């Protein structure tokens, strides 16, 4: 059964009236100075930072003060224009010493250009206008990726500027086959975004699908790529993300080079990578930088951590509520003695403690970094010890809960880590109701749910279901390099070969 | 969407209504760790249960309760009336039978233990010399929790292969097998200790005889191949080769650590029936009195043959004893059943044949190492 986003439908039925109205009113530019400036004022609602500046005898400059680069405006436009006389707009073109100049006769294009940081140069009496884009690019400087840090590897993350991000990627992949398609989303915000892929590796079908999906998005505004992801992924109702959000350019490029597609949204420091399999959320870029034994160990550790994180507390609850038979004899006395003072049933005890841990995490995430750390230490130690001493939880559960919280943070993708933490709660509840049967039921439910998911049409549980033995060489267990010379078939790559598996030093092997 | 709403309501109702399972919260139940069965007055069942209760004062105490009733479940009800917590049997580790019960019939007990899903198949069964209640009710000076103590005692000896294993699973397996009888350890109170004193032999569900604990090693190597275990034997004068007899000694105690033993059974004559038993044992020499030169290969060879001779004599003796009481604890009958076509063996039929069975024991004893140990 497919779900459709409810807002998509509504918008199709009731298109925005204002947008249509603007289109219908004026298409062409008026050939008179007063008419033209008035028109600009009307359409842009006469903002306070709109500057209309006349340069005698017949020129008018129109720009938005906060959008254009002052220095360029002074040095390369105004200086050049003041000392000369121009008959036609075409004559201005060669004089301006800026890289890109356009001439337009359409109002809509003119307004869009104005709002993107262009200076409009109007020659009196012509129904054409010269557009000189000199936008002021303000962005935060590049910094380390805070949410996806790694020890060995590049220490640079995306920032909020689309052009900076693309330049970062272009520096990683110097190739004419790196395709960059610009698309716009948002009826009111006109947010620009770039669809990137490697021509000759990425599957054309997937590129078309993704482009179609982005074009079909019909929303008012788009402020972050995470929102776009939710609108274009395969199953919006699933808690599991079906596309990867990353702030690492190297991970993004790694994806592109493996035939994946990437989306970068202006104003967002998180890039989207798709299609992606479930297991890839638990792989870090750093694994590629490590030797295969170490990388395999790290991945196995992370996968154990998922199971610990999701099932440890429910198993505690299930075992103590229903299945006291399975508790090993050596644990029997310590377990029951630590619970002897607790007045609640195990479900309630576990939920309470999990809730406290989640509160601590949330508080730590919302507070400024300096205070956040203090909260973590103070909360962890003080609340933990106090809770045990007050007799509202047992100290063995405290260890279990802390362990599963810790385990959930090993997931390299923060969005997936959140899901892992979230699905624990219903399982604890169901373990409290039905014991191990409930845990098994929940496990089957999650497994079936995951089996049904897809990422851009590619199977989500690949390479395990459908089984693709060759792709398993670089999933939970990472094989040595000569075995992983081919790209995974998840992305249906046009070119499978990544490198020649023959060793560089044949005499040694 | 509407269809889904119905599913959600159904799921909600199911989880609310079916969530009324009986809970057994660990700290709110009394955990029975050991149960002993005796014959009570007027042929009733007398049950002694060792129950561990957890108190909020951070001290757990162990209660030993003896009750008498017509059935074992009735006894549980009765015991419940004396305890502050519900009795559960999921953590039961050992079941003991009084001698009188064992000499009656264990069929009922094995059956009812098997039928109960919360009873582990890994629990140990044993026979008590005398009454179980007397063994359990005694206040031992050094034993805190008698239930756990007996469990550890049996586990330790069985894991180290000093005693035959008698888990419920194995006992039930042998009990329902046509060509094999069950055997269980015997335990006894010796003043302030609980001790393994022997092995009980059964004919069907009835205990018919007992072997002393010293014989359990022979029993083990005869029953199955095994991998560890120290044994000690005294070589009598006639077994010792003259080359080793330096002084005038009457006997020679030796201790071995068997590394590996392998038993092969072969039916040579189905009519009698007659079996060839071949045992290959590899061992380390641990101790030998008096001092002999173990560096001499001839001495070692002599010792090997002496031990082989001694072992086959002892093994024949035990088998003869089991034959006299018609208790085939070694499983010869199973080899017979698998070697003879259409034998249509039943337990009774086999017991009749077992009486007249002949065996030829051949032991090949090999000393692998001596000198530095452990």
Automatic annotation (TrEMBL), chain A:
The keyword Membrane applies. One of its GO terms (cellular component) is plasma membrane. Keywords: Membrane, Transmembrane, Transmembrane helix. It comes from the Bacteria. It holds the Pfam family GerA. It is a multi-pass membrane protein. The keyword Transmembrane applies. One of its GO terms (biological process) is spore germination. Its main location: membrane. The chain crosses the membrane at residues 300-320, 371-390, 396-415, 427-451. It is found in: Cell membrane; Membrane. Belongs to the GerABKA family. This is Spore germination protein. It comes from Psychrobacillus lasiicapitis. The lineage of its organism: Bacteria, Bacillati, Bacillota, Bacilli, Bacillales.
Automatic annotation (TrEMBL), chain B:
It is found in: Membrane. Residues 197-371 form the Spore germination GerAC-like C-terminal domain. Signal peptide: none annotated. GO terms for biological process: spore germination. It holds the Pfam family Spore_GerAC_N. Keywords: Germination, Lipoprotein, Membrane, Palmitate, Signal. InterPro entries: GerAC_N, Spore_GerAC-like, Spore_GerAC-like_C, Spore_GerAC_C_sf. GO terms for cellular component: membrane. Residues 24-188 form the Spore germination protein N-terminal domain. It is a lipid-anchor. Its main location: membrane. It comes from the Bacteria. PANTHER family: SPORE GERMINATION PROTEIN B3. Belongs to the GerABKC lipoprotein family. This is Ger(X)C family spore germination protein. It comes from Psychrobacillus lasiicapitis.
């Amino acid at each position: 059964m497919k779900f459709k986003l409810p807002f998509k439908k509504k918008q199709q039925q009731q298109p925005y009236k204002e947008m249509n109205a603007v289109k219908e009113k004026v298409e062409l530019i008026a050939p008179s100075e007063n008419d033209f400036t008035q028109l600009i004022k009307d359409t842009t609602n006469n903002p306070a930072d709109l500057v209309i500046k006349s340069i005698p005898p017949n020129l008018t400059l129109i720009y938005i003060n906060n959008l254009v680069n002052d220095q360029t405006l002074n040095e390369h436009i105004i200086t050049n224009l003041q000392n000369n006389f121009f008959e036609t707009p075409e004559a201005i073109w060669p004089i301006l010493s800026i890289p890109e100049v356009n001439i337009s006769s359409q109002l809509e294009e003119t307004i869009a250009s104005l709002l993107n940081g262009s200076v409009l140069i109007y020659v009196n009496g012509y129904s054409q206008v010269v557009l000189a884009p000199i936008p002021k690019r303000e962005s935060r400087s590049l910094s380390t990726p805070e949410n996806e840090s790694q020890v060995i590897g590049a220490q640079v993350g995306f920032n909020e500027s689309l052009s900076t991000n693309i330049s970062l990627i272009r520096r990683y992949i110097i190739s004419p086959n790196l395709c960059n398609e610009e698309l716009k989303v948002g009826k009111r915000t006109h947010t620009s975004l770039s669809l990137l892929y490697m021509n000759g590796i990425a599957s054309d079908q997937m590129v078309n699908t993704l482009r179609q999906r982005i074009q079909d998005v019909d929303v008012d505004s788009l402020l972050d790529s995470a929102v776009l992801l939710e609108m274009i992924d395969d199953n919006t109702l699933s808690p599991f993300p079906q596309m990867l959000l990353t702030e690492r350019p190297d991970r993004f490029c790694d994806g592109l080079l493996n035939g994946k597609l990437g989306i970068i949204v202006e104003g967002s420091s998180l890039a989207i990578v798709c299609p992606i399999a479930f297991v890839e959320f638990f792989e870090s870029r750093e694994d590629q930088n490590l030797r295969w034994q170490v990388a395999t160990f790290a991945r196995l550790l992370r996968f154990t951590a998922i199971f610990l994180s999701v099932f440890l507390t429910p198993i505690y609850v299930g075992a103590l509520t229903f299945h006291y038979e399975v508790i090993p004899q050596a644990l029997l006395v310590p377990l029951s003695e630590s619970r002897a003072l607790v007045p609640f049933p195990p479900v309630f005890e576990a939920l309470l403690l999990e809730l406290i841990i989640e509160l601590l995490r949330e508080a730590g995430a919302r507070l400024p970094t300096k205070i956040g750390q203090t909260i973590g230490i103070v909360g962890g130690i003080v609340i933990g010890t106090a809770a045990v001493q007050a007799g509202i939880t047992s100290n063995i559960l405290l260890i279990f809960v802390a362990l599963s919280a810790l385990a959930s943070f090993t997931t390299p993708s923060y969005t997936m880590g959140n899901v892992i933490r979230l699905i624990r709660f219903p399982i604890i509840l169901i373990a409290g109701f039905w014991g191990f049967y409930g845990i098994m039921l929940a496990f089957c439910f999650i497994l079936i749910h995951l089996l049904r998911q897809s990422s851009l049409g590619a199977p989500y549980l690949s390479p395990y279901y459908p089984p693709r033995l060759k792709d398993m060489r670089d999933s939970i267990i990472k094989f040595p390099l000569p075995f992983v010379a081919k790209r995974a078939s998840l992305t249906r790559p046009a070119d499978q070969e990544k490198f020649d598996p023959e060793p560089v030093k044949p005499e040694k092997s | 969407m509407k269809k889904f709403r119905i599913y959600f309501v159904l799921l909600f109702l199911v989880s609310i209504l079916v969530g009324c399972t009986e809970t057994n919260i660990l700290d709110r139940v009394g955990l029975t760790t050991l149960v002993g069965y005796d014959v009570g007055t007027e042929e009733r069942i007398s049950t002694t249960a060792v129950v561990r209760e957890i108190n909020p004062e951070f001290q757990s105490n162990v209660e030993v309760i003896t009750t008498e009733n017509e059935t074992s479940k009735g006894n549980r009800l009765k015991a419940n009336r004396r305890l502050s917590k519900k009795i559960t049997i999921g953590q039961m580790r050992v079941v003991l039978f009084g001698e009188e019960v064992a000499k009656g019939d264990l069929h009922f007990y094995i059956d009812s233990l098997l039928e109960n899903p919360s009873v582990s198949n890994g629990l140990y069964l044993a026979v008590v010399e005398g009454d179980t209640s007397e063994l359990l009710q005694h206040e031992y000076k050094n034993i805190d929790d008698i239930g756990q103590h007996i469990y550890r005692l049996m586990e330790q000896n069985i894991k180290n292969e000093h005693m035959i294993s008698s888990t419920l699973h194995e006992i039930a397996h042998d009990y329902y097998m046509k060509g094999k009888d069950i055997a269980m350890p015997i335990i006894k109170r010796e003043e302030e200790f609980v001790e393994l004193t022997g092995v009980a032999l059964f004919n069907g569900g009835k205990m018919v005889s007992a072997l002393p604990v010293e014989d359990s090693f022979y029993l083990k190597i005869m029953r199955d191949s095994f991998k560890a275990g120290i044994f000690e034997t005294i070589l009598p004068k006639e077994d010792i080769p003259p080359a080793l007899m330096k002084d005038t000694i009457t006997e020679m105690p030796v201790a071995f650590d068997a590394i590996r033993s392998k038993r092969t059974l072969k039916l040579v004559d189905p009519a009698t029936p007659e079996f060839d038993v071949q045992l290959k044992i590899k061992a380390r020499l641990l101790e030998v009195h008096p001092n002999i030169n173990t560096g001499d290969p001839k001495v070692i060879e002599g010792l090997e043959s002496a031990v082989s001779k001694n072992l086959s004599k002892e093994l024949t003796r035990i088998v003869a004893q089991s034959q006299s009481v018609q208790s085939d604890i070694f499983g010869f009958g199973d080899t017979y059943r698998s070697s003879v076509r259409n034998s249509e063996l039943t337990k009774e039929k086999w017991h009749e044949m077992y009486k007249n069975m002949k065996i030829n024991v051949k032991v090949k004893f090999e000393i692998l190492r001596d000198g530095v140990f452990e």
